[in-house]
Amino acid sequence: MSISAIIAAAGSGERFGAGIPKALIQLADRTLVQHAVSSLAPVVDQIIITAPAGFEAQISELVGEGIIVVTGGATRSASVRNALAVATGEYVLVHDAARALASTDVASRVIAQLKNGAVAVVPAIDVVDTIKVVSKEGFVVSTPDRASLVSIQTPQGFNTSALREAHASQNEATDDAGLIEANGGAVKVIAGEERALKITTPADLNTALSFLSLGSDIRTGIGTDAHAFGVGLPLWLAGLHWPGEEGVEGHSDGDVAAHAICDALFSATQLGDLGSNFGTDRPEYAGASGVRLMQETYSMVTKAGFAISNVAVQIIGNRPKIAQRRAEAIAAISDALGGAKISVSATTTDGMGLTGQGKGIAAIATALVYKQ
Ligand code: CTP
Ligand code: MG
Known about the structure:
It is built from 12 helices and 17 strands. It is α/β, with parallel strands linked by helices. The protein has 2 domains: 3-211, Spore Coat Polysaccharide Biosynthesis Protein SpsA, Chain A (Alpha-Beta Complex); 218-371, CATH 3.30.1330.50. InterPro entries: IspD, IspD/F, IspD/TarI, ISPD_synthase_CS, MECDP_synthase, MECDP_synthase_CS, MECDP_synthase_sf, Nucleotide-diphossugar_trans.
């Protein structure tokens, strides 16, 4: 029994006011539409996204192959109809990209009800405010009993042919269940979740962030390394070979920037340090390059359940001059660390100390990681 998912993402995000479609707004490590895809992908067989006209290619590139992108319509209902036309599932979930953080769990509970025979299923949460019906003139008309009121969320689930029928006979509603109701169909209500809030204004982004683990378990770490120049050695620094520059003595290829970065990552994740992980009692790492050590560190950090927010490294020494190869160094380090955000800076020390006297090179690194 196959399941399609429609992600409504064709709105312009007027109230958010970012000047770009709301679905393309960044929340932590990805855009709202990418969050929505990630939570539905594990439980559906087909995903169709409605894109604002002109943004089809951009959204398609963001979400990758295998996901259908159609152009949205003038209203949400019109957008959903465009997607419904290509849905192949027996059941269909209709979800708002704006509810980016709705979980896979709520989607599976909706699907479970559909498999149980429900024609339409909606997640809901209790309302906390007293709700009043107000006239155009600005006077209260009535106060419905709050106990019978709920706030409706998405993903909403439907028997696909029932939703097609409802869309064919009714034109507009602010949600799809509304069309089923107007057709006299029964809509089953299940428990929704706070994290499925609809991101409408910039303030909602902060609330959404607090639901990501990113908001709760962030850790920082520091690492330092220094080596003296040695005659006739090649220089390896920040994952790069520096032809014509004198190299440094030291463990492996003597890449002080790479070693400081590994130490910063071990420090942030409480996994020990360079010595305890790659030291003399681990002969398999003898002579390993800085790049290889960063790759190994990245794999250990990932296995321990951490993601890297960013890594910054500062190289201290009179030479080499880092600026002209900064972009290359950033790319080399980022490649070794799974595409992490990297910055590389450099400084001299006004003629003082080992590095200032031109006797060697040092590096200091910091890493910010978060538990996933
Ligand atoms: N949507 C859509 N097609 C439209 C209008 C809205 O697919 N013609 C989608 C939005 O992208 C959003 C969801 O429906 O994911 C709910 O709409 P809303 O939160 O109102 O988003 P926007 O319409 O983008 O925001 P605004 O009303 O502030 O412009
Ligand atoms: Mg809207």
